[in-house]
Amino acid sequence: MSQLAAAAATYAYLLTPKGQCAVAVVAVTGVNALAAVDRYFRAANGRRLGVQPLGRIVYGRWGGAEGEDLIVCRRTSAELEIHCHGGNQSAPQIMDDLRVSGCTQREWGEWLFQKRTCPLAAQAAIALAAAPSLRTATILLDQYHGALRTALRNIVADLKAARPSEAQHRLGCLVERASVGLHLTQPWRVVLAGLPNVGKSSLINALVGYTRTIVFDQPGTTRDVVAVATAVEGWPVDLCDTAGLKSGAEPIEEDGIKMATSQLKTADYVLWVLDASQVSDVSTASPWQLACDQAQSVGVQLDAGRTLMVINKTDLIDFSLTDGPQSIATSAITGAGIERLLRLLASRLVPQLLPPGAPVPFTSDQVSSLQAALAACQQDGVASALAGLLSSASFGSLCMQR
Ligand SMILES: Nc1nc2c(ncn2[C@@H]2O[C@H](COP(=O)(O)OP(=O)(O)OP(=O)(O)O)[C@@H](O)[C@H]2O)c(=O)[nH]1
Ligand SMILES: [Mg+2]
Question: Which tens digit of pLDDT belongs to each residue from 234-287?
């Protein structure tokens, strides 16, 4: 779009979520905003919208005497807000009428970008709306209030003052936090896998505290992948139940096993479930070796860095089993070890707790820009890193200026 056309464009944004809510808010911006709204709105005080004072809340009707009751506020000469009923009728009708009046419909996130001088604040506000837990929302709120912006400004200051090692250290810290940052809006996928009948589904039910997935005393009960959304110590997690893995299965079981193995390959973290009696039987092999052998028999390679063994059904054995460095002893029936498992899982997903107010990158574009700046700093020098950061769309030079 040419600059002239962009200046003349008038946009309508539905700022509240689609669906039912108490009140819906529509923003209209641009040179023709007043005319577009004035075409439908009749104020109860009888005056045209153009002569209503700026900032005044004006009650009236949309579309004539029989129209919908609502209020309109002229915020500036080129920006109006319409507050209407939040059902499924009013806001979509108003958006449609505004489109007929020549307004281009835009997403609420784009309105935020238009209003915020720093794209990071807009990105944080958008991410906040998708935060699945209070813990992740708190971290995103810190970014909204400028934690990441301040960190970036410090990096830019280091680069401008030719202090590459300080800049590298700061960039490295941010890049390290990317794995947490990217999960502030997207849950970690934790896959429970193991041989049939070891108690994978029972463990999921125990971990979430209600019956979500079918448990049965015959092997081969779970066939599909069942994802259960939960929070582990405030971190959002999808626990994925999978079919018990074995070779030589029936065709229908085989399909479930294929799904399970593909889940294992892409999981953020794996809980490999063992039956405590299997562990006691194999006195020579370690539980880890046993788990690796079981996985190997269905063509899966376990990665020690992202796998924890859960030795379940400990209530059925007559010797005591303690947790190991890579394993935790549980009983899905008595609940023994379940709280410990949740705590341990949280510490594996987020090994380093973030201090309050810590800067964290939270979109993949931000992470890519930071990784590129770090690589440039290490290989090409500060000028290249600085140029890359200042031209990055995710940060924007406005964010960087003090
Ligand atoms: N005693 C005892 N029984 C358990 C425990 N966990 C599960 N079970 C029982 O073991 C049987 C199998 O449990 P599931 O949770 O269905 O096992 P699964 O690993 O999901 O089985 P598949 O879906 O067939 O692979 C059921 O009878 C459960 O009640 C446990 O900790 N202790
Ligand atoms: Mg199951």
Answer: 999 999 999 999 877 777 778 888 888 999 999 999 999 999 988 876 555 688
User: At 213, which helix (H) or strand (E)?
Assistant: none
Which of 195, 197, 250, when mutated, tests ligand 1's pocket best, judged by the most ligand atoms within 8 Å of its CB?
Answer: 197
Same domain, 18 and 51: yes
The reported pLDDT for the residue numbered 4 is 46
Q: How far apart are CA 222 and CA 130, in angstroms?
A: 31
Q: Which domain holds residue 135?
A: 119-177+360-400
Number of domains present in the structure of the chain: 3
Question: 341 and 211, same structural domain?
Answer: yes
* Domain CATH code at residue 85: 3.30.1360.120
Domain boundary at 69, 85, 109, which? Answer: 109
- The answer to whether the predicted template modeling score (pTM) of the entire model surpasses 0.70 is yes
Q: Which of 229, 310, 304, 298 is nearest to 271 (CA)?
A: 310
Greatest mean pLDDT range, 196-200, 217-221, 246-250: 196-200
Q: Kindly report the protein residue whose alpha carbon is nearest to atom 14 of ligand 1.
A: 199
Q: What is the pLDDT of residue 252?
A: 74
For residue 251, with 0-12 CB atoms within 10 Å meaning exposed, 13-18 middle and 19 or more buried, which class applies? Answer: exposed
Look at residue 182 and tell me if it is in a domain. no
Residue owning the nearest CA to atom 21 of ligand 1: 197
